[in-house]
Design goal:
The chain is 44% helix and 17% strand. It folds into two domains: 166 residues, Jelly Rolls (Sandwich); 107 residues, Arc Repressor Mutant, subunit A, CATH 1.10.10. By secondary structure, the chain is an alpha+beta fold. It starts with 21 loop residues before the first strand and ends in an 11-residue tail after the last helix. Strands 1-7-2-5-8-9 form a six-stranded antiparallel sheet.
């Protein structure tokens, strides 16, 4: 879904001043905004509560309190919490929103922003900042607390700090414009809820023998329609998406360090170790054992 400024719900904590270059919002959960969507703004999300999965373009990753992610314009995304209390949470993430075009115009007046714009050019598909400390989190809170020129000054300092951040990883590997075009067909919008139901089923049962037939039936769609709209929604075939979900779960288990690599292979749904190793290297660029060293997934943004 395309989320335009004028269509946003005026939820508590949101700032609706359209002329402001830097806007700050809060996102709770559950919420009408908790859906697969995209928009023209950059969004910097700081997670403050709950844990779950972040779907950003074709990337699937875990999030929890302290996670910091920058999402580029028109990159489809959604955050799904898996540990929500019955009453939900009023604030799951703090978000700073800013428009690419407006910031580029500001660069004409403030040449000091040039380095930040080069950073944003690389960040268009999304970036996760790793090992974020309390200093960065305090700066985000200061941006939210200030207004006018003081806010912009603090925001520019934040961008400068993130542009030089030593530990981060790129997210979506698909050009955002391609993703937008895939997701703007009327049929894709009509089947959105069914695809989301299928995604939830895949994540819940990724260790089982999932088949295209069983998941399409679970979603209430024919096999052919499901295959077509699943590819539109995720950028992957059903088989490739299931493989990536299993690799994501394997990464979590590898970081925990409680299971041998050979055991993790079967815990996430692969039938043999060689197949697991082959797909892991193809997707992550390293072997499972190398990934466990906690450095393999920290790819510098190119």
């Amino acid at each position: 879904m395309y989320e335009h400024d004028t269509l946003r719900a005026p939820e508590p904590g949101s700032e609706l001043a359209p002329r402001s270059l830097v806007r700050c919002t809060t996102h709770g959960a559950p919420s009408p905004q908790e859906r697969w969507h995209y928009h023209d703004d950059y969004e910097l999300h700081l997670i403050v509560a709950t844990r779950g999965k972040a779907y950003i373009g074709d990337d699937i990753s875990n999030f929890g309190p302290g996670s910091l992610v920058l999402i580029g314009p028109q990159v489809p995304h959604n955050f799904v919490s898996f540990d929500l209390p019955a009453q939900g949470v009023e604030v799951r993430s703090l978000t700073i929103q800013f428009k690419d075009e407006s910031l580029r115009k500001a660069t004409d007046l403030f040449p000091e922003l040039h380095d930040a714009m080069q950073f944003l050019n690389r960040a268009g598909r999304g970036i996760e900042f790793l090992d974020v400390g309390e200093d960065v989190r305090r700066r985000i809170h200061r941006v939210r607390a200030l207004s006018g020129l003081a806010r912009f000054t603090e925001f520019a300092a934040l961008l400068n700090e993130l542009a030089k951040w030593p530990s981060c990883r790129s997210l979506s590997s698909i050009e955002s414009r391609e993703q937008v075009e895939r997701r703007t067909t009327r049929d894709a919008a009509q089947h959105q809820q069914r695809i989301e139901k299928a995604l939830a089923h895949i994540h819940e049962h990724c260790a089982l023998g999932l088949s295209l037939e069983s998941v399409s039936t679970h979603a209430g769609m024919t096999r052919s329609a499901f295959s077509r709209f699943f590819k539109l929604a995720t950028g992957h075939t059903f088989t490739e998406f299931v493989t990536r979900v299993r690799i994501t779960e394997a990464c979590r288990l590898l970081r925990e360090g409680r299971h041998a690599v050979s055991s993790i292979c079967y815990l996430v749904g692969f039938n043999n170790v060689s197949n697991f190793n082959r797909h892991f290297r193809r997707i992550k660029g390293v072997t499972p054992s190398e990934f466990r060293n906690d450095t393999a997934y920290r790819r510098t943004v190119q």
